[in-house]
Write a structure and sequence with these properties.
Oligomer: single chain
Number of strands: 7
Number of helices: 12
Strand content: 15-25%
Shape: globular
Order of helices and strands: HHHEHEHHEEHEHEHHHEH
Helix content: 25-40%
Structural class: alpha/beta
């Protein structure tokens, strides 16, 4: 009798120390930025310098979907070195609270505040925190942005619920998501379990192609990456490229906008919010892996 082989285990999530090593190495050289610029072309936002799929079209769309007013609080969840949140804070005259797993990235983000905000650096704070435990007060934020960070959460359901908790009524969570094209998304169920509604699902049709170009650049220039970044960061990038490239032809990427209803009562108790499980048990899975 034929038996179905068990699914391959999901790749291990990088540790904060691995992110620290990557950000430390990247600060020494512009090789990573040059490769992102080559992969994105004219869509690469040089000033932001994010290690993500963030391009000019995404920034413009996120600005529109957040629909925030000057002086409101934006949370940049998984902020990396802070460029995305700082750009939005400057463009929309917002206050900013950014957090990331990597202490090195957080320090680099804080150091970039004068470039974006001039002397008004108190408008932006950065700290070490987890997507599943932000330590932010309930209903504190008018908007949350989460770009290519959800895939590093140990439990995506719990992370979405935590980000929803910090939203004020009427506030929006704008986040990148991806899945296999033949998979049925569970975004509506996940949003409802967190007390949110799905407001927009914007397709990002060029995102898989961008990652393919970038990964092939990494592989082509593997020796240069090792020389300039060091063996461990380069090895992590090359392993990611080799694991992710085969899945890109079947990848669907979107920008998802979720809203906390403006007139809804306080969010349900945690047990109620988690009543609808994620199809993957909330765990990290290869189809939604977050690249570097």
């Amino acid at each position: 009798m034929k038996t179905t082989p068990p699914p391959a285990p999901a790749p291990a999530l990088p540790s904060p120390a691995q992110y620290d090593a990557f950000h430390t190495a990247r600060a020494r050289t512009d090789i990573v930025a040059r490769m992102y610029a080559a992969a994105m072309g004219a869509d690469y936002p040089t000033e932001i310098g994010a290690s993500s799929s963030c391009d000019w079209p995404l920034l413009g769309l996120a600005t529109s979907r957040l629909s925030m007013r000057p002086g409101q609080l934006l949370v940049d969840a998984g902020c990396g070195t802070g460029g995305i949140g700082l750009w939005l804070a400057r463009a929309l005259a917002l206050r900013l609270d950014g957090f990331d797993l990597s202490p090195v990235a957080v320090a680099q983000a804080a150091a970039r505040r004068p470039h974006f905000l001039g002397s008004d650096t108190t408008r932006a704070t950065f700290r070490v925190a987890d997507l599943q435990n932000t330590a932010l007060p309930t209903s504190a934020a008018h908007g949350v942005i989460c770009i290519d960070a959800l895939g590093r959460a140990r439990d995506r359901d719990q992370a979405v619920t935590e980000l929803a908790r910090v939203l004020a009524p009427g506030g929006r969570l704008v986040m990148t998501r991806s899945l296999r094209r033949d998979a049925t998304p569970t975004w509506v169920e996940q949003a409802e379990a967190a007390g949110l509604t799905v407001e927009h699902v914007d397709e990002r049709r060029g995102e898989p192609t961008m990652w393919e170009r970038l990964y092939r650049l990494w592989i082509t220039h593997a020796d240069e990456l090792r020389r300039q970044l060091g063996d461990a960061p380069a090895r992590s990038m090359l392993t990611e490229a080799e694991q992710m490239l085969p899945a890109l032809p079947g990848r669907r990427a979107v920008l998802l906008t979720l809203q906390r209803p403006a007139t809804a009562p306080d969010q349900a108790r945690p047990a109620d919010r988690m009543a609808t499980p994620d199809r993957h048990g909330g765990r990290h899975t290869p189809d939604e892996r977050t690249p570097q």
